[in-house]
């Protein structure tokens, strides 16, 4: 006897009659309602999110299907209101090892995504139909592929983004950042694209650390296809594939612009490794600044077209961008106050380090070839001969000066080997 499958309307009615919040397993109606919304309405709409947040996902879906929803919400859904693939989407996700994470779940990354809610409240006076590609709006749900918990993976995470048409320099830096951040216990979040994104993901994977790829298509439909193996490895080794679109969704161009806000929101800060004058990486960085997150930039050669966007971010005072050159500086910027400080860069020690002012003056007075007396050195160094005699032995021990038998001079540099490197 075949199993009776409840219809969408039956699940919605049960959800309305049940508890207001989802428990550990989740009320099917609420989860199914949010699954329906991810396919029916393109994410990024301020007006739709406000309305769903106000009336709840179940009541919103019922109103959209009945044609009683507000006009702006019905306009965003259009003919999709008559379709229902929610159950098929949930089953398709299950078959590829994915699941739908909703705000009612314990796994929901509430803390990092709260910045999107704050942004919506801060722009309460703006039009409901703001540009979806730039609006800072929370997602109604997230499709997640992988075994790790989304909230735990996102807790200590950094976005590393950059150009698709990257240079060898950029890919090297991104790979090093991904590896070093992973070694320090940080999750690398990126978009899974060619170039910088892929290099950052691979660096984290090489360190055996989790990494998150935020996709502009279904989690069962990796794009670009050439990265299928990388995406599979991410999902199978403690990382996650995350998307606002249901399984099977195609990677339409506008969706890449919409998902950028999610990369910025899930993380504590965004690192831009390479970016052209116009790039998605720049857009992600500006969204991060709009959410109050750190914007970090790796400088590049001033002659490189792939670093123009990076340098513009550093020049723009409104972004508050900070220059970073390695993972330690990134962690210092996004980590805990006073606990994730970067070590100062090592400065090569020289034989003159630590010399007193008198010793420096006497050393500078020494000739290169002919030795001279302490009295002559004292005259040039503007000191007493006895003072010069007091510092000369220490300078000799440091191999800075040499006694010739008749006077003092600078120690000659080591002789170069005869014929070294010569052709013939």
From TrEMBL:
Q: Which InterPro entries match?
A: DprA, DrpA_SLOG
Instruction: Name the Pfam families on file.
Output: DNA_processg_A
Domain of life, per the record? Bacteria
Q: Where is the signal peptide?
A: none
- Which positions fall inside the Smf/DprA SLOG domain? 136-334
Q: Which family does it belong to?
A: Belongs to the DprA/Smf family.
Protein name listed in UniProt: DNA-processing protein DprA
